Amino acid sequence: MTDTEVLATAARAIRGSVQVALACHVNPDGDALGSMLAMHHVLRHHGIASVASFSQPFVVAPHYRELPGLDLMVPPDQFPARPDVMVTFDCGSLDRLGDLAACASEARELIVIDHHLSNDRYGTINVIDDRAAASGVVVRELVRSLGFVLDRDSAVCLYAALVCDTGRFQYESTTPAVFDLARELTEFDIPIPSLSRTLFEEHRFAYLQLLAAVLARTELVAAQRFVWTVVRQDDLARFGVTMDEVEGLIDIVRRTREAEVTAVLKEDVDGSVRVSLRSLGDVDVCLLAQSMGGGGHRFAAGFTAPGPATAVVDRIRAALP
Ligand SMILES: [Mn+2]
Q1: Ligand 1 centroid vs 78 CA: distance in angstroms?
Q2: Which of 41, 56, 160, 227 suits a disulfide with 154, CB 3.0-4.6 Å?
């Protein structure tokens, strides 16, 4: 089937359904939440009953709080056990649905909306476009295929999906098609400054203090073009910050001009160390992570190892050119 035919098949299934059950992957990001909520708004707007959820932990990260429709989701235990038509968003495999994987297996029709090349096509209808910059882009096409229109809330959600997955129009995925969609979405009343701030910029003051301490101990190994730092449990206690809040810290450390590879180590309560790796492309950090029992992509990968952190750094350095 061509892309257009698959979209039309998905649209027919949705139109013919009594209730459409929408789900995205565990620990949803901006694209997962944005694409799912956009579809939720569009269906409600056109009188099609829908329910939206994601697996436990049923908690939305604070920087997504301005997405309209978060209050319209239901907890996963209220999700239909045997959905008539279920649609998944930005979710590459069944297990990434967490608690909702069982519901997906019981669905009469399972529509998979995604843009990951690695998607294993677990649906009965798979609408997967690996050239799309975000799942939100695929949702826009599905809405068109349904003959439905966007409203303000769905436009805000799709805009969030688009800016999150293109890194605010900075990643390689930023094509002319991305700007076409952005132009269309910004015809609606999108609060661009406040969305940008909450999605990408603001942090609690406590985090900034932790950041200062962690940056102060960052080490540059110039000979190996390698920069690294560690976040310790006592940092979290001292500044009152959770490990979840330091996810973006590596994006600051990897700005180091002299470094090709960046590592941020996070000491867990049990003494093990979670390592995030980034590369500019000359070094394949996925291979490095795999050699340590982890995985990822060429530019971004990770692994977990027994501590202490200094021993883990020695192992990374031994694997680097
Ligand atoms: Mn995505």
Answers
A1: 25
A2: 41
Q: How far is CA 155 from CA 23, 124, 159, 185, 189, in A?
A: 19, 28, 6, 5, 8
- Is the pLDDT at 48 greater than 90? The verdict is yes
User: Which residue in this structure is represented by tokens 């960046």?
Assistant: 262
Which domains, and CATH codes, for the chain?
3-200 (3.90.1640.10), 205-319 (3.10.310.30)
Measured distance CA(219)–CA(193) in Å, rounded: 35
Average pLDDT over residues 146-152: 98
Q: How far is the CA of 246 from the centre of ligand 1 (A)?
A: 21
Report the SS3 class of residue 29.
coil
* pTM: predicted TM-score of the whole model, two decimal places: 0.87
Alpha-carbon distance 116 to 128, whole Å? 7
* Cα 252 to averaged position of ligand 1 atoms, centre (Å): 22
Q: What is the mean pLDDT of residues 98-125?
A: 95
The percentage of the chain sitting over the pLDDT mark of 70, rounded to a whole number, equals: 100
